[in-house]
Amino acid sequence: MSVRCSLGHENPDGSAFCDECGEPLTAAEPAAVAPAQPAAAAAPVAGNGTQTCPSCGAVNPAGEAFCSNCGVSLLGAPAPVAVAPAPAPVQPAAPAAAPASLQARLIVEADNQEFDLAGKDNIVIGREDPVSNIYPDVDLTPHGGDEGGVSRIHARIFVQNDQYFLEDENSTNFTFVNRQRLAAKTPTLLSDNDEVRFGRVLLRFKRP
């Protein structure tokens, strides 16, 4: 005597599940069912043409897709799904450093006082005069500017195309670069270690 599933597959009398499709066979009295577990591998086939269910240990004919006792798949576990590695965290970009060419300084020869010109596009050189509301970026008053003939607005240094230029602002006692007097309102390119004189106050221009 045999038991048929709803699809017409014949199964041995007493089978709890269809050998072909795994459908529960309600007409049959199922044997004690162990907790179903996914098969780790295909059920081993014995030399006599049978295979043992890896879940409940029941013997099934070779080639069956499902155990006739507990219904577990006899075809092995599904192929593992590849998991893509998590993307590496993005590091924030470090702030860009100021160009080395803009790290320029003026150094007073008499006392080695330094004036940092970095980050400034227009630097006024002269003497502070609160009465006239004049406050130059480079105040030479404490460095002999008054007795040295430095005008209140004597000259200016400005940046153009990553280069520093010096321009005399119609000063009374003139501006000199490497002992050459500059014509008023005529920009002159400055190079590293140039000697710059405002009236009689001597400075040195430095840049990397």
Automatic annotation (TrEMBL):
Pfam families: DZR, FHA. InterPro entries: Cell_Proc_Reg/RNA_Proc (IPR050923), DZR (IPR025874), FHA_dom (IPR000253), SMAD_FHA_dom_sf (IPR008984). Residues 123-182 form the FHA domain. It comes from the Bacteria. This is FHA domain-containing protein.
